[in-house]
Specification:
The chain is built from 15 helices and three strands. By secondary structure, it is mainly alpha-helical. The longest helix is centred in the middle third of the chain and has 56 residues, at about 150-205.
Length: about 400
Amino acid sequence: MAPPKKKTQVKSYLYTWEGTDKKGSRITGESRATDINMVKADLRRQGVNPLKVRKKATSIFNQKKKITSADVTIFSRQLATMMSAGVPMVQAFDIVGRGHENPSMQELILTIKADVEGGTALADALKKHPLHFEDLFVNLVRAGEHAGVLETLLHKIATYKEKTESIKGKIKKAMFYPAAIVAAAVVVTAILLIFVIPQFEDLFTNFGADLPAFTQMVVNLSHFVRDYWWVILGCLIIAGYILSNTWKRSRKFRHAIDRMLLKLPVIGMILNKSAIARFSRTLATMSAAGVPLVEALDSVAGATGNVVYSDAVLRMREDVATGQSLQLAMKQRNLFPNMVIQMVAIGEESGSLDDMLNKVADFYEEQVDNAVDAMSSLMEPLIMVVLGVLVGGLVIAMYLPIFKMGSAI
């Protein structure tokens, strides 16, 4: 018996068309389909007489862009809002899809719309695109479809995605500022070593005197950078490539790096609170949707944003599956603060676990926000001091021989 053939995805294109409606008025629009004949047939079904149909040309201003998590977040809120307003799902997909600025996201939405039009459940249509809709998203949509509360669940998903994007943005803000300053410092130092210091070296050669030790050290460093810059650059590129590949392939390596980051003085505290906030928000959303706890923890593990917490949640899932309470499973991991464990215990006893977890998430999201602001305020003078010592040290090294010559005169 021959093996079944794999289904190939039919590629669709965007077409612009002109036509007349039932009243004879000229109208224009855009449609996505596999060929021109399908566009014409679809227009006729809508009562439009197609006059001109042509494939839309892709300009440099309309190139496909990568679909980001922010795109999915905006799509979630738009779809939830339109369905709450009574707009049918297929029509909502059509409106949201055609109005999206990102052509790649537009194509994705209209592809999902075509699947839903063909009778596929929304959860199953989303599941075909795992790169953009994670298991958590799909499971919540499926729970909403089964319970008949899809609109409510879409609003919860949109809120969850917005909160998650917000906390991601705060973490990026905390990391980006010092990284950008360090990069600028490296560039400025490299420019001084390669272009400026050699000019001073030529001047010092005419003095005919020995250079101060500090100045000589900087001159030697300048020689090394000028002679072996390609070695330094090559080592940095190779090291980056190796680290990137190891990060993707080795979970043990990611676990070690994440554990090290969690122990850093200021950043570690922010990452810990961020992981707890994401854990709480995700589990609260799934609990409110009626997803069983064991199944919910499986999805929550991937949403914490940290391998250490992810592994801990997966072990908690195994404990809960054997009948252990969630708060006891959390206590055994030694990762969650006592306040979080007590709030979960109260939620389990009172049957309001989602409310308690939402309160925990709100508290820790505010903590992360305050910590990021405090760190930014602390980093500004610290970075200025580092830059001053680095650049100022190079400048002083170059002027020391001049000061020495002046005192000798």
